[in-house]
Amino acid sequence: MDHVESATEQELVTALAAFPKELQRLLDGYAASALRRPASDGGWSVGENLCHLRDWERVFVDRTRAIVDQVRPKLPAYDDALWEIERGYREQDPAAALRQFIDLRQEMVATLSELDGDGWQREGIHALHGLISIRWIAGYLATHDREHLSQIGDALL
């Protein structure tokens, strides 16, 4: 999705729901060894990207639930700079990371699909960004998806 700012809430939900299928189509037929191979430019492998997507999806599912359930909850900031090492992304099974990401994304899409117009505007207080709305989260995820789809495509070259 190129124009996240101007997208409707339904367009965001549709884009977020479609992303796992895009990933599955892109990765279909690749051996696990290919998914673990670092990108030719030295960047993350497909598997590392999938672990990153999964771990951030968990964060955003939790943030969204907190915003839905509470009035302006405090949302901690996370520094993911060391997650790759601390969580052993290189050793994890890419297929398992993809399945876990898909489960979390389905949870996110279900939560977003239940919101009315006011629900999309509900906010939490992020430790770094200040007030962020559920709509902001959905737009951020849609952009994040596109960035990592590009990185995953590069890692497959």
Q: What is the beta-strand fraction?
A: 5-15%
CATH class: Mainly Alpha
Secondary-structure content class: mainly alpha
Task: List low-pLDDT spans.
Answer: none
Give, in order, the helices and strands.
HHHEHHHEEH
Helix content percent band: 55-70%
How would you characterize the overall build of this protein?
The protein is globular. The chain has a single domain (4-155), classed as dinb family like domain (Four Helix Bundle (Hemerythrin (Met), subunit A), Up-down Bundle), CATH 1.20.120.450. It is mainly alpha-helical and 157 residues long. The protein has helices at 9-27, 32-36, 46-69, 83-86, 94-113, 117-121, 134-155, and strands at 74-75, 123-126, 130-133. The protein contains 7 helices and 3 strands, in the order αααβαααββα. The model has no long low-confidence stretch (mean pLDDT 96). A hairpin with a 3-residue loop joins strand 2 (123-126) and strand 3 (130-133). Helix 3 packs antiparallel against helix 7 (134-155).
